């Protein structure tokens, strides 16, 4: 799909341009993201002291505490943070991770009843719970106190609980990290070792959940990434070895190598093994689990490939509307991925439903400018439950209600999707002259790391580069490898992923949109242009 280009800034002061484009107001905090610059937690959580006091009492009295998490990476890392911290402080604590297919997202009544029967006095939710109104009432009725920590969209009515720690400015694991830090300080423990162990997990969860890497999220991730390569966690070490990670850890390694493995078990069956690998201290056990995660991740990839192919074969032209796919062949664990792939390829909001059983699971992904939670919420009367963010959501629905929901959501999209929103736009930071393509510029760009949601990698436009050579590369020949040169004869090594269909031709003069990188293969450390798009000059 053709992309439109928008150049955001101009000027010789590249640092100033990049800072302005990212809306950076506090440069000291942005460029020196030290932990002591984290926002005071009381500003986020007015009832934090009440939560800390209750958990401290439970630890001291050896009450059974349950950490109730979500089955995705953010929920698993948040669960691991609080389980490990409370265990470190001498508490009696157990985790509860619901089954994606059988129980679905968030609190459920059956789980609350099971936890109450086991004698728990306190449940702490992580990455879920803000929508669990009925479950909160049930917990209270059964004599179990509830602390909810969550970052998802809250409803007009909040759950009745001892304390609600809720903000959309942190990930679920980020909130767990803050709560764990306060607990460690409340016990006057030598907290540094456990604090940094928690920080590693919070960085993984924050990146995996696509939380904007600005402000406190940036501080958590910047510091957590620094520690990840030297982690003492046997499970992470085993994942690195299994995946062939032997360099510094960046958001790429977390988002595309580590997180998919941790997510796979919850998508295909139950996420408990992913929690186990985060917590185990035994190297042999960690190695076994890492191999299992790799195997399950391959199964997840195969299931995604089959489901996506079927969805595309049966997809009618979405035109200017929303993509809607529903079938009993879609495994519930991959529908979010299918929706994401469809949305990315066709640049439309996408809803995919797995019709396995009478109660069906749905997942949605959206594009910039179209709030998918608001869209789904407009047809909430057909749903059993729902939750999510502006760009991603999930829900449950009775199979008999799917046709009515489909009709309503398509009608909503037709009224609210604007045509100008249906063409992807590349936001280019600024133009760079050919003489600016050097390691000095790359060093300046690296000052803005880590990149991710909310702090994207800078994109540049350089015009008038000539194609010296180009060839298709990759297993399926979908990518291109090219050498481009400018007026001064400097040759630039370039690579473009999934751009083979655009037909770059030798001898043509082109304008190129790219990010600046370094090819360190075999110690070359050559400057490389990672091409995002190009067109003839």
Automatic annotation (TrEMBL):
Residues 65-205 form the DDH domain. Keywords: Exonuclease, Hydrolase, Nuclease. Residues 321-414 form the DHHA1 domain. It comes from the Bacteria. GO terms for molecular function: 5'-3' exonuclease activity; nucleic acid binding. Residues 428-533 form the RecJ OB domain. The keyword Nuclease applies. InterPro entries: DDH_dom, DHH_sf, DHHA1_dom, RecJ, RecJ_OB, SSDNA_exonuclease_RecJ. One of its GO terms (biological process) is DNA repair. SUPFAM superfamilies: DHH phosphoesterases. Belongs to the RecJ family. This is Single-stranded-DNA-specific exonuclease RecJ. It comes from Candidatus Woykebacteria bacterium RBG_13_40_15.
């Amino acid at each position: 799909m053709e992309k439109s280009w928008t150049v955001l800034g101009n000027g010789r002061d590249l640092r100033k341009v990049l800072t302005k484009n990212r809306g950076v107001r506090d440069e000291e905090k942005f460029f020196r993201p030290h932990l002591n610059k984290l926002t005071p937690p009381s500003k986020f959580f007015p009832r934090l002291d009440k939560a800390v006091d209750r958990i401290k009492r439970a630890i001291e009295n050896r009450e059974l505490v349950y950490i109730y998490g979500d089955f995705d990476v953010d929920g698993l890392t948040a669960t691991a943070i609080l389980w490990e911290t409370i265990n470190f402080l001498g508490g009696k604590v157990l985790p509860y991770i619901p089954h994606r297919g059988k129980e679905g997202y968030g609190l459920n009544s059956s789980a609350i009843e099971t936890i109450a029967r086991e004698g728990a006095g306190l449940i702490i939710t992580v990455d879920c719970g803000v929508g669990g109104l009925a479950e909160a009432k049930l917990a209270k009725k059964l004599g179990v106190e509830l602390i909810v920590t969550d970052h998802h969209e809250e409803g007009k009515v909040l759950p009745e609980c001892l304390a609600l720690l809720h903000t959309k400015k942190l990930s679920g694991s980020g909130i767990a990290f803050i709560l764990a830090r306060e607990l460690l300080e409340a016990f006057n423990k030598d907290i540094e070792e456990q604090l940094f162990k928690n920080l590693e997990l919070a960085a993984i969860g924050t990146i995996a959940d696509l939380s904007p890497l600005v402000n406190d999220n940036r501080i958590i991730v910047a510091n957590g990434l620094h520690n990840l390569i030297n982690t003492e966690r046997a499970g992470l070490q085993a994942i690195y070895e299994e995946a062939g990670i032997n360099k510094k850890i960046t958001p790429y390694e977390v988002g595309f190598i580590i997180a998919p493995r941790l997510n796979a078990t919850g998508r295909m069956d139950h996420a408990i093994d992913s929690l186990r690998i985060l917590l185990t201290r035994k190297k042999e056990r960690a190695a076994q689990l890492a191999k299992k995660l790799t195997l399950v991740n391959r199964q997840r990839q195969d299931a995604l490939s089959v489901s996506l192919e079927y969805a595309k074969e049966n997809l009618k032209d979405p035109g200017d509307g929303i993509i809607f796919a529903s079938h009993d062949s879609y495994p519930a664990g991959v529908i979010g991925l299918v929706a994401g792939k469809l949305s990315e390829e066709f640049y439309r909001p996408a809803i995919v439903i797995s019709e396995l059983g009478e109660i069906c699971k749905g997942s949605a992904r959206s594009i910039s400018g179209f709030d998918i939670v608001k869209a789904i919420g407009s047809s909430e009367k057909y749903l059993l439950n729902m939750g999510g963010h502006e760009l991603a959501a999930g829900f449950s629905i009775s199979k008999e209600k799917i046709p009515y929901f489909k009709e309503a959501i398509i009608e909503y999209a037709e009224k609210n999707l604007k045509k100008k929103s249906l063409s992807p736009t590349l936001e280019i930071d600024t133009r760079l002259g050919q003489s600016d393509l050097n390691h000095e510029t790359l060093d300046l760009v690296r000052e803005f790391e880590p990149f991710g949601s909310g702090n994207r990698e800078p994109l540049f436009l350089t015009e008038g580069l000539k194609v010296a050579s180009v060839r298709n590369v990759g297993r399926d020949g979908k990518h291109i490898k090219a050498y481009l040169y400018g007026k001064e004869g400097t040759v630039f090594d370039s690579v473009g992923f999934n751009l083979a269909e655009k037909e770059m031709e030798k001898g043509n003069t082109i304008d190129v949109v790219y990010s600046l990188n370094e090819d360190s293969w075999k110690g070359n450390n050559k400057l490389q242009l990672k091409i995002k798009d190009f067109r003839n000059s």
